[in-house]
């Protein structure tokens, strides 16, 4: 991020890539203001715990999502999501014997977690249960079985067996094996907040040339868990820091704000132009950070009266009008993220980055949660209704983020590319969650 651009900061016009537009910009603005991606929680640790240098984080989630889309924009975007689809006919109706069996079972006692209270309920209390396309969720569940939680892991053999079963068979098996619990705060409040997050898709160059002047670095050799490394400003200006990073450039980006976005998100897909002219799709995953705290560049501008609203349009306009101060804005955030490159084969490209559970995320079926409320690997029934989207579906708790704190707090992974921009930018609404936990032994 050593070069301030004199032109407006925008994604280059690569025809094969998604380009940010107004709605995507709303999400970016929220990320710039919040920045939870740079402060992920350790796997299995409270989300607020500091992350040691080099600790792999989850794919990150927005700390404070942007405002919901306007009604006309939301209506237009809704047609492209597909997330609010639900089968009109129940695949397992209330006349089925398993419904009667489940209704007759005694409810177990509540379960108290460090940050939530699980209240047992009947399956009939889950909005939309029996109409979800469960086979679509099974891939996410199979991923969780790669790193299963002890209580849920005992079911993985059956989960694998049922991967080719019908939706009705999957529904019936879940009703017999699992007990739904309404996830609520310790004070009894079941309402939570749902936001969305995604994996950026950006053009990049393997070589520094033309507009590609902003490097993304691999982990340098001099980092220590005991003390901060060079700050962002020092990385851009200190010869000693630059010497240690020499030759560790993975790719070069054309926009320093794209680099900042990628660092906030924690991982992303790059369409890399190789020296021989080939284009190669790779993933850059989090490898570590320099040990400095995250500071919001949007907040830095707001506090100085440079902008009146923390929107992408305002930040971009300010940067375009003040190229000589761009580095000052970027340097206000001393934290820098380092990456590692991962090849994307045909199978890997169908999934997202690895979340806090250590498994690849599945678009529209993975959520980030507070692990003190919902353990990783837990199947969760999610119901959320808002101006942008209606969700009633099975998801898997596979990720977290420093701002994902609370009993029914969830971040919905929308995937990557242009459509994921739309979806993640629009989601900020109330959510209700039900943890689906193994039935206690009789």
What does this structure look like?
The protein has 442 residues and is α+β, with helices and mostly antiparallel strands. The chain has one domain (1-197, 293-332, 360-442): RlpA-like domain (Barwin-like endoglucanases, Beta Barrel), CATH 2.40.40. It contains 14 helices and 15 strands. The protein has helices at 22-34, 71-81, 97-104, 134-144, 150-153, 156-161, 167-177, 232-237, 239-245, 256-265, 297-303, 312-321, 326-331, 417-426, and strands at residues 111-113, 116-120, 178-184, 192-199, 201-205, 214-217, 249-253, 267-273, 279-289, 337-343, 366-369, 379-385, 390-399, 410-416, 428-438. The strands form three sheets. Strands 4-14-11-13-12-15 form a six-stranded mixed barrel. It has a four-stranded mixed β-sheet with strand order 5-8-9-10. Strands 6-7 form a two-stranded antiparallel ribbon. A hairpin with a 5-residue loop joins strand 8 (267-273) and strand 9 (279-289). It is elongated and about 70 Å long.
CATH architecture: Beta Barrel
Terminus-to-terminus distance: 61 Å
Percentage of residues in helical conformation: 25-40%
| Uncertain runs | 1-29, 34-81
Structural class category: alpha+beta
The main pleated sheet reads as:
6 strands, mixed, barrel
Shape annotation = elongated
Beta-strand fraction estimate: 15-25%
Return the string of H and E elements.
Answer: HHHEEHHHHEEEEHHEHEEHHHEEEEEHE
Look at the structure and name the CATH superfamily.
RlpA-like domain
Helix segment count?
14
> How many distinct folded domains?
1
Number of E strands: 15
Rg, Å, rounded: 22 Å
Strand order of the largest sheet: 4-14-11-13-12-15
CATH classification, class level: Mainly Beta
What is the CATH third-level topology name? Answer: Barwin-like endoglucanases
